[in-house]
Amino acid sequence: MTALTRTGPPLTRSTLLLLLVLVLGCAAHAALGQTAGAPRFEELARQFEYDPRAPLDVREVGRQARPGGVTVVDLTYASPRGGRVPAYLVLPRGRGPFAAVLYGHWMMRGSPLRDRREFLEEAVVLARAGAVSLLIDAPYVRPGFVMEKEEMREAVQSSEVSRQQVIDFRRGLDLLAARGDVDPRRIAYVGHSFNAHVGSILAGVEKRITSFVLLAGLYADEEFVFDPENRAMVELRRRVGDETVRAYFRDYAWDDPVHFIGRSSPASVFLQFGRRDKPITEKMARRSFELFGEPKRIGFYDAGHALDARARRERVEWLARRLSLRRPDYAALARIPDLK
């Protein structure tokens, strides 16, 4: 499953509809993953396995000092799926043990902060409060990535990207653990849009993460696509073919969050939504919220897909409590520009 936008030529209306479905998913009944013939969780989770003993091969590209004793390290590490993962490692002053946050960006086309830079200033604020952060680029924005042009091939490619991103984040946890200054009981994940999708899968398969904040995502796909009252999806299926779409969902069931989010416990989950974020209606958001395990929280904001400063502050407040951080610098947080 893929991002709302991509590099390359402008999206056609039909392609955008498919991308919206495959990224954001749909509102689904909690029983969707429990029907007869549903794939076994253990089989789906196997798609995200990797060799944790393989060398991380961390290579530092550069570093920058920030006020308050914060250091931003630009680095790459080896991906188990091939290539290298560009990342920022944001470090507080001192020896720790520190809490840790993994950040996944939104990839909105046209945004200057469509990559790992989206959450960098937020991570700097958290570093001054006592948290290490790792912010990675998704494969979509890494050098040399070429998007497929045909719709279903693009859907398959995006599922493979999703799998790589889940595994690259798991490898990022290995990188943090290898440092020796991270408290393994205080690890969080923050993901926006595409990386909310990724985080919802991580919530099922990666139990080292104890807190998740997922922004502007929904967490099931197939029921939405086959909703007979959804005229846009009826037209898309007429053009692509029902069996082609059904085959995709059969073959790539491991990329549908509905099979993972019910297993988010014992981690705590905070979902954030914008009330002006089309096509995510509040009704859809609340129905998807029901699928997650306890404990969980949901927040709505007078914002679109980018969310806003209030969402940022509530997210940081929640993380500070969950991770037992010092009081964050809310004045500095308020100076971070809203996403466009």
What can you tell me about this protein's structure?
The protein has helices at about 15-25, 40-45, 120-130, 150-180, 195-205, 220-225, 230-240, 240-250, 280-290, 310-320, 330-335, and strands at about 60-65, 70-80, 85-90, 100-105, 130-135, 180-190, 210-215, 270-275, 295-300. The protein is globular. Strand 1 (about 60-65) and strand 2 (about 70-80) form a beta hairpin. The chain has a 9-stranded mixed sheet with strand order 1-2-3-5-4-6-7-8-9, sandwiched between helices. Helix 4 crosses helix 5. With about 350 residues, the protein is α/β, with parallel strands linked by helices. It contains 11 helices and 9 strands. The longest helix has 29 residues, at about 150-180.
How would you state the average pLDDT, rounded?
88
Q: Which percent bin holds the helix content?
A: 25-40%
Order of helices and strands: HHEEEEHEHEHEHHHEHEHH
Which runs of at least 5 residues are low in confidence (pLDDT < 50)? 1-36
Structural class: alpha/beta
Largest sheet: 9 strands, mixed
Radius of gyration: 19 Å
Number of helices: 11
Approximate shape: globular
Report a brief summary of the structure:
The chain has helices spanning about 15-25, 40-45, 120-130, 150-180, 195-205, 220-225, 230-240, 240-250, 280-290, 310-320, 330-335, and strands at about 60-65, 70-80, 85-90, 100-105, 130-135, 180-190, 210-215, 270-275, 295-300.
List keywords for this structure.
340 residues; alpha/beta; nine-stranded mixed beta sheet; 11 helices; 35% helix; disordered N terminus
